[in-house]
Amino acid sequence: MGALNLLLYSVFAVIVIISATINDGPIVETKYGALKGEYLKAKGKDTVIYSYLGVPFAKPPVGPLRLSAPQPAEQWKGIRDATKQPYMCVQDRDLSVNLTEHFSMTVEIPDVSEDCLYLNIYTPAKPSEDARLPVMAWIHGGGFTLGSASTFDGHALAAYQNVVVVLLQYRLGLLGFFSTGDEHAPGNYGLLDQVAALQWVQENIHSFGGDPGLVTIFGESAGAVSVSYHILSPLSAGLFQHAIAESGTAAIDALFTTSPLSVAQAVANVSGCDTSSTKQIVDCVKQLSKEDLLTFVKRVDLTFRVTQDGQFLPKPVNELLQNKKFNNVPFMTGISNDEAGYVILNPSDQWLYEIILNEYMGTTNNRTKIRDGFREMLGDFMFNIPARIVAKHHKDFGAPVYMYEFQHTFNELQKMRPSFTGADHGDEILSPNGPGLTPWPEFGAEAEYLGIGLEQKPGNNLKGKHYAFVTQTLPRLRHEKKDGPVVQTKYGALKGECVTAIGKNRVVYSYLGVPFAKPPVGPLRFTAPQPAEEWKGVRDATKQPYMCIQNRDATVELFSSLSISVEFPEVSEDCLYLNIYTPAKPDKDAKLPVMVWIHGGGLSIGSASGYDGSVLSAYQNVVVVLIQYRLGLFGFFSTGDEHAPGNYGLLDQVAALQWVQENIHSFGGDPGSVTIFGESAGGSSVSFLLLSPLSTGLFHRAIAESGTAVMKPLVENPLPAAQQLANMSGCDISSTQKIAECVKRWPTEDVIELSKERLFLRFVVTVDKAFLPKPVEELLQAQEFHKVPLITGVTNDEFGWLLPRPHTQYINELVLEEYLGSSEDPIQIRDAFTEMMGDLVFTIPALTLARAHKAAGAPVYLYEFQHPPSIIQVNRPSFVRTDHGDELPFVFGLCFGNAHVKATASFSTEEKELCRTMMAYWGNFARTGTPNGAGRSPWPEFGAEAEYLGIGLEQKPGKNLKAEHYIFMTETLPELVAAAQQKEHAEL
C-alpha cells in the first residue's frame, strides 16, 4: 500500500505551501557550474526559501553507462536553469498519475527517462558565506520501483527548521537493481546513485549554506531501507552524521535477495536474449530500448531487489549488525500504528506460517478480529519488528537511538479510507514541525519510544509481546524445525520434529515410531512382547510406524467416510511402536501429566497413525502417548491353554506402559501421573488394564470411552475360533499344540487376506490366568481391580458392531419387549432397536463398571456425549443422533489439527469451543483426578443418584442415565430368567 500511496506524500508541500516566484531567481555557484533557482515561501513563515530543481549529481546513466556505477557529473558553462522538475527515473508513470487523481491532489508529474540522476535543493534565503546550516537529504520510498524527488517538496521543512533540504533521485526497478549476482552485473545501482548524491552534497552543499559535516539522511519505506543500508555500507562512511529511517530498515527481508540470477534470466528470456552466460545476458539487457524497459515496470512478477554485491553491501545484513560493522551515528527510527505490508509474509514452511497466524489471530472466526490481526501481523513483520531489531543493534553499539510510533490519522486522508484504519504507512510524512515539543526519551534497556500524535506520549517496550515472539520464539523454532529436537531415552537417542496446533503458540515435539518392544515376528509370534533393543546413534522419529496387521483398505475407507484426512502407513507384523507428543523445551525436572491413548477398532483394526496427539498436548500442556498393539489373529489368537494363551495385544499394552514408566521422564512426563484412555475396544482395553494384576502401578487414572470389560462379546471361549482357523489353513487339529505350531508358521500374506475376507473374525480376550486371572464379573464383584479415578461414558446414540447374542429365544423376546413393545411403526421400531443395541453393548456395561468402581471407593465421573460432529453428520441419515466415537474429534481437538490428521470440512465456532471443553475436561482429569477446573461447567461425581454430565454445545448435569433400562437389564431380566429356569427344572 505504501508503494501505491507514494504520491500522496507530495502533500509534504501541497497542504502547507503558498508559492511565490520572483522573476530574477537566486543564483548559486557549484563545483560543476552556476545554477539559477527560484524563490518560495511556506505558509505561516516569512522566511524565503531558495529552491534549485533538477541539479545533476552524476552523468546520465545511459548507453554504455547503463547497469554500471554512476559517474561524476560533467561541468557546464553559463547559468543552468534549475526551476523545472527533473525527469522521473523509469517507472510506471500512469500509476503515479492515477494515484494523484484518486486523492484529488495537484502534483506535477514529469515524464520518465533514464536520464534521471538529479537533486532538488531547498535552502533558507541569502545564507551567509560562512553559514553552516544542518543538511537533510531525503531518499524517497516506493519499493525501489516507484517515486521521485518531484513528489515531495522540501521548502516547508527548510523554512520551519532553518535547514538545507536535499531531495535525491536514484535508478529504480530493472535499471536500478538488475543483477546477475556476479561481476557482469553486481546490482545495487540505485543505492550507488544515492552514494554519489551524498558525495555531491559533501562537495557542494556549502555553496547552499549547508554544513557538509552535519548531514542527516532520512527516508520512508524503501527510502528508510536505503538509509539503513547506508549505515551498513563502507561506501557511505563519512557522508552523513545522523540517520532517520521511517517505516523501513535493512532488516526487512522482502527487499533483499540472495539469488538475483533467476530474475535476470527471466528478463533475458522475455527479451529474447542469449542466456548461455551472464555476460551475454548483461550485454543484451544493456541494449534494450526504452519501450522494452517500460514493459517491465508493469510486470509485478519480476521484482528487482538489493543484493550482497561485495562492495556497497559486503556481507549479509544480520552479520554486519551482529558484528557491529556499520557507521555508528545517532539514529531515529519508528513506525505508524497501523502499518501494512506490500509483501505478504511467506515463510518457507506452512508449519511456521500457522504459528505466526496463531500468534496474531488465534482461532477467532470474527471477521473484524481476523482483519485487524492480519493487518497488525503484516505491519509487524514488514516494518515494526525490523525497526526494533535495528534500533537495538544501534543501541548496543553505543549510538544514541530514538524511536517513535506515529499515531495520528489526517482528516483529509481518513475520509478516503475505511473507518477502522489507524495511522497508515507514510502518514508521518505530512506532519508539520513546531516549538514546545514533548521530551523524547532515548531508546534504551526498556525500549523507550515516543507516541506521536495530536498529543505526544512517551512509552516503552513498543510491540513487546510480538517483538519477543519474532526475535526469540521464531528463530528457536526455525532452528528446531531444521535440525529437529533430540531426546535421549534408555534405549537410545531419538530425533523428532516440531508441530503446532491452530490457535496455540506452544510448539509440540513429536517423536513417531518409537519402539517399545522387539518386533513380534518369527519365534516371537504368539508370545508375550520382549523388551526393545538398544540402538546406536540418533534414530529418526519423524515417520509414522507400520500399522499392525489388519485390513488397511477398511481403515482408510472408514476415516474417509468421516471427512477426516489421514496419512496411513502400510501394515506389518513389526508394529510395536509409540507416537509421543510433548510440549517443546520441557525442563530437565519437568513433570507433566502423561496421557496414554489406546485406539479402538474391535481389536481388529486401528493404529497410532489414525490419531494426532499434538493438539491435546499443546492445549493441555500434557505429554500424549499413542500406542499400537497386535490385532486380530496376531493379537488375540488363543487355544485357551499354555500353547497359545492369547491376550498378546493386551500384553503389548502392558509393555508400552512399562516403557512409559522407564522413559517418559526424558520427554518431560511424570511417570507417577499417567492416565490411560481409550475408546470402543480401546475403552475396553482400559477397563481390562484396570482388572489386570500385570498393570499394577503403571497408571494412576483411567478414561474408558464407549467401551468396558463388561462387554460380554469380548470375552469368550477361544478354542472354537482357533479350530475354525486351523481347518481353513489345513492344519492338523488333533491337539492344541499342533494347531498353535501350524498357525505360527502361517505366512503374513495369508493373514492379511484373511483380515480382508473376515474383517471382524472373532479373536477375543481370554481368561489367561496371567493378564486376566478370573472372569470379569468375579473380579468386579470381589473388587479385585485398581481403584483409581475413572471417567467412563457413552454417546446418546451408540450402536454396536458386535451384535448381542442372548442365550435363548426366551431372553431375546424379553429384551425386545422391553424396547419395542407391540409397536408396528417402522420408525419407532428402528429407533428402539438402535437404542437397544447401544444400551446392551455400551451403555449398560458402562453403568455397571461405574457402579462397581464407585462401590469400591474410587472417584467416578460419568458422561453422555450429545453432539454429533457437523463434518460427519452430513454423511449420515437424519435420524442418527450422536453415534459411536463421535466424541473423538473433540477429545483430540481435530478442530485445531495441523499435522497429518486433518478435517476435510470446517467446524463451527460452537464446535471449536466444544473442542476446548472436551480437552480441558480430559486434561484436568489427567492433572488432578477430577475433570473440573476453572472456566468449565461443573461435572458432578457419580454417586447414589448416578449423576452424570451431558456434554454437547451446552453442558447439562443429569441423574440416573438410562435408569429404567438399566434396572431391567441388571435386575428384572435376571429375575425373570431365574424364575423361568426354576419352572423348567420343576417340570423336569
From TrEMBL:
This is Fatty acyl-CoA hydrolase, medium chain. The keyword Disulfide bond applies. The keyword Iron does not apply. Keywords: Disulfide bond, Hydrolase, Signal. It comes from Bagarius yarrelli. SUPFAM superfamilies: alpha/beta-Hydrolases. Belongs to the type-B carboxylesterase/lipase family. Residues 1-20 form the signal peptide. PROSITE patterns: CARBOXYLESTERASE_B_1 (PS00122), CARBOXYLESTERASE_B_2 (PS00941).
